[in-house]
Amino acid sequence: MTPPAGAADPFQTDGMPTDRELNPHLKLTQRGEAPATPNPGYARITETPTPHVVIPRHRLFANSSQRQLAAALMEPDIYVILIPYGGGRSFNARVPNFGESVRTLLDTFLFGTQTEPEDMDIVKILPASEQEPRVGESLSFQQPWGWLLRCGRDLRRWLLWMERISAGINKTFSIYPLNYFEDSWKIATLSADIITPNTSHARALEILGNVKKTCWANTQFKKYVVDMSRKNKSNLSPQEALVQATSSWELVPADHKDHLGKLTRVYILTGRPLSTDDKERQTWVALINSVDTVWVGVHKIDMKTYQNRISCTWCKSDLHCAHACPVAKVEDWYGPDPASAEPEPAVGGRRVDEEALQEDSEAQEAIWGTVSRGKKRNSRGDNSRGRGGGRVGRGRTRG
Ligand SMILES: [Zn+2]
């Protein structure tokens, strides 16, 4: 197990994981200096910061009208995107007046000497087409989830700083900019017989070491890291580049809940992307997910089964499932409560979609009521693929 003298050791843990202060998944809303805040109005909103949720551009805009987005992206400093908490088909059907109720709420936020609300525009993002959903897409949860908002400068700044407004069951949403898109640090999702709620920290580090070891030994992985290192004009040796590329890696526990309510503990591998380019980052993630099988002694680590199954239909995070959404756990939360909408275990009948998404949409329906499933027959019941992120809105994400 001991590496030869001078060689890098994938099991070395001193000073790791690095860059935690940059890890977007560990951040809360309301970061940095507060901008001008509106005068106290009559709206009761959540004041406590809640977890910051990363929604990469390709996920945010999957299945959105490109024509409409292009028009908004022409004015990225004027528009912001609102993502309703639990947004999706069930939500849209149940809360058709979301735009109006949000507008009424926002009208109460006045700044300084302002006495009248500023001119405002709020419009639903339209789907790319009315065609049947892509394979693996949950109907209730299907994108687009968001709305575009154009409003005054002070309100825009304050909303972006707040990041999430919770003012009632139908008035809870997060706010995302159009002039900056964040990358998720999620890389892979690991499951195995040795990954349980009782797995020790030492065992988790052993698993992580073996993941690194397997990646380091992979020719394509090594080539990608060395190429990126050269591109960034670094003077690191190939071995140092491998250590640096994976020094931020850590395993984050999450629980997947199946259609019978059975929980499976998984570890989500997170790490700092080597590039800010969406396409390059996705190449990196794909590479890691296609390296040779990771083994820990006699135990095989599965990196395929759960990769696209950990995803929250409430806040849209891809690091937890709906039943475990941490966003709604603050004391002064006024939005829907995922915990009070736990789905009943399946009794008889066959579920087409066994993924967590199905569970989540049922949990949402417990709050928002049943939505017509008329199009359900279109579902091909094939959930072997993910939600196909990455087809839309790739390319440069900044500037
Ligand atoms: Zn969530």
Would you mind describing this structure in some detail?
The chain is an alpha+beta fold and 399 residues long. It has a domain at 24-177. The protein has ten helices and ten strands. The protein has helices at 57-60, 66-73, 89-94, 98-106, 153-162, 201-216, 219-231, 238-246, 278-289, 356-368, and strands spanning 79-84, 121-124, 147-150, 164-166, 172-177, 186-190, 250-257, 263-270, 294-296, 299-301. The protein has a five-stranded antiparallel β-sheet. The protein has a three-stranded antiparallel β-sheet with strand order 6-8-7. A two-stranded antiparallel sheet has the order 9-10. Helix 7 (219-231) packs across helix 8 (238-246). The longest helix has 16 residues, at 201-216. The radius of gyration is 22 Å and the shape is globular. The N and C termini lie far apart (47 Å). Residues 1-22, 336-399 are annotated as: Disordered.
